[in-house]
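task queued by scheduler; priority normal; single chain, no ligands, no partner chains; default sampling; output format set to structure tokens
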Amino acid sequence: MKFEEFLVRHKVFLNALGHSKGSRTRPLESIMQMYRIVFDELCNGITDDMSIVEKLQAHPNLKALTSPLPVPEEDQEPPRKRFSAAVVRAKVVQRIRDGRDRCPVCGARLPPSYRSKDHTVKQELGGMGELENLEFTHPFCNSARDAILAKKQELSLT
């Protein structure tokens, strides 16, 4: 989930790579390289965003990536009594992000447009098509549920 959270926080990177490389599949290798670096860093215990961003920017194929720098306190606007449009938009994004359902199999965010109906108790074991037995998963997680859960259990035992 840290991988997904990093990508959500730095979603501008995908746009930057897409615009810098052109259309169709040209940005694909750069995007895959970005994913590999982020994943490797997280697997190595590096969770600091700036450290990961520096590693990304050091790669020759990822020079297009820029991260918004923190605004120094003296340059920040004083607090306002009324909400700015930017604050309202940020709150909407935050509510959507925080309120998004998660797949019960893999734990990743589950967009409403990309979900599959799944039986909590399998039909073969007597599970019925009732409200209490319905859960939404990713289509892949639905079809590979047993293998994914077995792998998760295997990893937790080691």
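post-processing summary
- Helices lie at 2-9, 12-21, 28-43, 49-58, 85-99, 139-143, 145-157.
- The beta strands are 116-119, 134-137.
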